[in-house]
Amino acid sequence: MNNIKNILTKGQVIDDKYTVTFFLKKGSYAESYRVKDKEKTTKLLKLFSYSKLHRTQFDQNGDVLEIEILKKLKHPNIVKFEDSGNLLIETQKYAYAILDFITTLLS
After folding, report:
1. Closest by alpha carbon to 68, among 80, 92, 84?
2. Is 54 helix (H, G, I), strand (E, B) or coil?
3. pLDDT (tens digit per residue) in 30-63
4. Separation of CA 34 from chain center
């Protein structure tokens, strides 16, 4: 049985733009979720916990380095960055990145 408490819950709305539909994965400093935007398009939300990030994971402006790099990457073989923002949940600060959701088909 899964007793791990996720940060976001199914149906939760993020910044009045994205609705959480499914928890995907938990890592050491981030969680990934499948979300739907206002047009009902499936996207990937990666939620970064500021308290679990090392100081080297921030740029000189205090922004999450991974998000800042994703914003600059533009290549047909790399998932497309869509949006980002910050959340405050129960006094904890989080940053999120919205990426195109890619499904893999297993044959």
Report:
1. 84
2. coil
3. 999 999 999 999 999 999 999 999 999 999 999 9
4. 9
Beta strands in 1-107 (DSSP E): 13-14, 18-26, 30-36, 42-49, 81-89, 92-100
Rounded to an integer, what distance in angstroms lies between the CA atom of residue 85 and that of residue 47? Answer: 10
Structurally, the chain folds into a number of domains equal to 1
Domain span including residue 91 = 18-100
Query: Domain with 59 in it: what CATH number?
Result: 3.30.200.20
Domain contains 106: no
Q: Is residue 49 part of a domain?
A: yes
**Domain presence at residue 4:** no
Report residue 1's pLDDT band, with 50, 70 and 90 as the boundaries: very low
What confidence tens digit (pLDDT) does each residue in 62-91 have?
999 999 999 999 998 889 999 999 999 999
- Tell me how far apart the alpha carbons of residues 52 and 36 are, in angstroms, rounded to a whole number: 26
H/E element holding 16? none
